[in-house]
Amino acid sequence: MGSYTATIVWERSAGEPFTDGRFGRGHAWSFDGGVNIRASASPHVVPRYSDPAGVDPEEAFVASLSSCHMLTFLYLAAKRGLIVNRYEDTAEGVMSKNETGRFWVSRVTLKPRIDWEGARPDANLVGELHHAAHDECFIANSVRTEVRYEPVE
User: Fold this and answer.
1) pTM of the model
2) Ramachandran quadrant class, 65 (left: phi over 0; alpha: psi -120 to 50; beta: rest)
């Protein structure tokens, strides 16, 4: 299919300690389309040295799952002749410890709110579309995180 790149850059500030762990976690993500994003460690993980204005890897992971699911859902809905006017998801990831005591994003819950053109399709059909979107989403197929769906009506 394709290959995907991102350039990640971090630099130590002049005079900033490093080996004692007291250094800024802010950094930059650059993508091939020209988008640059301020990124950082999560304030939940490194509160004192993170940049709360930056996107942290955990947030990006949740957004990636949500975005992939949405794009796949929209594609499948269009194939069925259904028209979606708006799709909004407030996705939430949960960090926990695995069986060896390591932290991981164990669950992501997608909470899509969909505005349809005309009458809303039958709930069973919408559920089928979400199930198929999950099965076909490249990102969901790449992770072991549990992905749940709680559609918002």
Assistant:
1) 0.92
2) alpha
